[in-house]
Write a structure and sequence with these properties.
Helices cover 22% and strands 43% of the residues. By secondary structure, the chain is α+β, with helices and mostly antiparallel strands. It has one domain: RRM (RNA recognition motif) domain (Alpha-Beta Plaits). The chain is elongated and about 50 Å long. The relative contact order is 0.26.
């Protein structure tokens, strides 16, 4: 789970939880298939679709020095199909 930083819990992502869709912030540079594989391996679920969005870094200024923060990728709406184990 090197690529996944943390789960995002904002109003939109909390609404998507009811639809079995989860939102994670992940490291930049990883592909959708890598994140899909990690989530399936770590959580033991089947990921149906992965949507992603690359958020730009914010500009920062300290006195006369201009800079920016690092960008990161937000994986949106990981539609996860959960299977009921032993309840069929």
């Amino acid at each position: 789970m090197d690529g996944i930083k943390y789960a995002v819990f904002i109003e939109k992502s909390l609404h998507l939880l009811g639809k079995n869709q989860y939102t994670f912030n992940v490291e930049s540079g990883f592909t959708k298939t890598e994140i899909k594989h990690w989530v399936e391996l770590f959580f033991g679920v089947k990921v149906v679709v992965v949507n992603s969005h690359r958020l730009p870094g914010k500009g920062r200024r300290i006195g006369p020095i201009l800079g920016h923060t690092m960008h990161f990728t937000k994986m949106l709406e990981l539609s996860i199909m959960r299977t009921k184990m032993g309840l069929e």
